[in-house]
Amino acid sequence: MVMYLCVDLEMNLDRDWMYKRLDSDNYLRETFVEGVKEFIMYACEQEYYKQSKLMKCPCIKCKLVPYKDVDTVRIHLYMHGFRPNYYCWSCHGEEYSEGTREGVESSSSGLDSNPYTDMIMDAFGPQFEGLNEESFQNLEEEPHPEAKMFFDMLLNAQKPLYDGCKESLLSVASRVTNLKCEYNIPHRAVDGFTSLMRDICPDKSNMTDTFRATKKLLKGLELPHQKIDVCPNGCFLFWKDQSHLQKCPVCNEDRYKKRAKGKRVAKKQLIYFPVTPRLQRLYAVKATATEMRWHVENPREEGIMAHPCDGEAWKHFDNTYKEFAAEPRNVRLGLCTDGFSLFGNSGKSYSCWPVILTPYNLPPGLCMKRPFLFLSLIIPGPKSPKGKLDVYLQPLVEELKQLWNVGAMTYDVSKKQNFNMKAALLWTVSDFPAYGMLSGWSTAGRLACPYCMENTKSFTLKHGHKQTWFDCHRQFLPEDHVFRKNKSGFTKNKAEYSPPPTRLSGDELWERVSHLPKTIDHCELARDKTHNWMKQSIFWELPYWGKLLVRHNLDVMHVEKNFFDQLIHTVMNVKGKTKDNKEARKDLALHCKRRRLHLHDDSGASSSKTGDKMPDASFTLSKEKRKALCE
To answer: What angle do CA 571, 577, 581 make, to 5 degrees?
Structure first.
């Protein structure tokens, strides 16, 4: 958010440079470097620095807590930037002037001097612009609930914690809540902390004594969420017209836990965070409203891919849906999901699946930052949803269809106008197992490759007894590539002349999956030797899904991590984890021209015995080299 803090008006300090650290190429701006130099010079002139030669570091990481030397402070600011809202260098000797304070207090609106009023205006939208606490006092009748909540928060933003305190009641509540989230502090610990603060403050303070009361002060800033009851087996949502049912119509499982008395408790709940208000909030905040048009207003050099909008899939979508592309503020989204264990390695098995949406309109430096990774679903465990993942995705897909067909009226604060915001899901990003859950093509077995499909050249290793795709993808190389005629570096005595498999269009894919069920349990999956389709993905309900050039992507992080694990274990010859074992050497003798790696026995015994000797491979490090690498 854009936040302004009152500074001495006579000094006329323009410190926007403090929060404009990097340019579009991720290099430090000259204005930022000069500004840091000005800040360092100012801090070095203060008496406390002349005595200790240390100053508080105002970077995002240190947050004005530790004292550092000048060089360390400069490096921290270059690397991380200033902590939010430090326009007035109060911890480095700068003070407010009395004239400024009087001017602020006598301001007619008071909205331009307090960052928390800016935050409230961003949250409630333009319909409350120009209102202040005086408006609330002059009302002739009780305002509607939303307006009353707005006025209450506005009053709390102006009300000091106690007489003479610089911090307002709302600012303290915001900071306490932020600390709880940032450091994962338990509720009871926050209760004790707030109670201690109340005891320390003067008797007439407004400090709350529990986290629940503190959280109520921020209720108007919350974005909506829904709790939807789910069948314990994950096969049905008690949602919309079916929300009144007591049992799952699919498996006849009870919806609620059996209790003698008291409130009914659902056995399983899905938490859904609607994405529309989160996208609207991006246009309500000045700092992000302009950046949401970055992909159009910042042309890049042809042939260089620095953002998804430079890719072929994005351009194909724009050419296919020109009306959607004509409005640069329409949002392009990416979806990713993966399972993780809530309890780490503690031994308790639990698989929770968050579903995250990312708006790609933002520049590269922002669209992958944590504030813009929107958590849309929390799919509960304890087991992986597997083939029933689409059951949980229903609310999200329903909203995505609404955003495409109808849109949502949104106020763009940067242009001071309303517009009908639409959104489209361009693709998903996941690891290979989740790829199968999202796409409907099983990633297990001989036909696992989603590009080769039934035209795969995979085979089963005779000794290793595993599926292998060794030398299956030379067919994707250009026809004149030198590797195609190589008969010794890949499969022995084999050259590759076949073209790659034909890439299926969206219509051809739809013909293959249109008759399949939308959900299926893996244990009930009847394997078909001709294909690996197991279900019809719920994303086919999106009107534009069949026209996309790329629908599903593999997460580079997972691919790199898994590949590195196998590579380093083999190179370091880690027992039990290396892929270079006797079975691999036997299969290698059948398929490759690498005689120096074949098993042999000095006594002349058969090579099939367990006593066969494995010659050292050139890629395996000796004990001394392994030690040197670890050091």
So the answer is: 75
CA quadruple 311, 315, 320, 322: dihedral, nearest 10:
150
Closest CA to 392 of 226, 225, 235, 227: 235
Among 54-58, 287-291, 600-604, the minimum mean pLDDT is found in: 600-604
**E strands present in 345-414:** 353-359, 374-379, 408-412
- Residue 126 is encoded by which pair of tokens? 């333009």
Residue 323 burial (CB < 10 Å; 0-12/13-18/19+)?
exposed
d(CA 124, CA 164): 29
Tokens of 379: 């799919």
Q: How far apart are CA 400 and CA 397, in angstroms?
A: 5
Per-domain residue ranges for the chain? 16-92, 114-221, 269-453+506-554, 560-630
Query: Taking the model in full, what pTM does it have?
Result: 0.75
Other CB atoms within 10 Å distance of the CB of residue 120: 22
What is the spatial distance between Cα 297 and Cα 333, in angstroms, rounded to a whole number? Answer: 18
Q: How confident is the model at residue 146 (pLDDT cuts 50, 70, 90)?
A: low
With beta carbons less than 8 A apart as the criterion, state whether 224 and 279 touch: no
Share of the chain above pLDDT 90, in %: 48
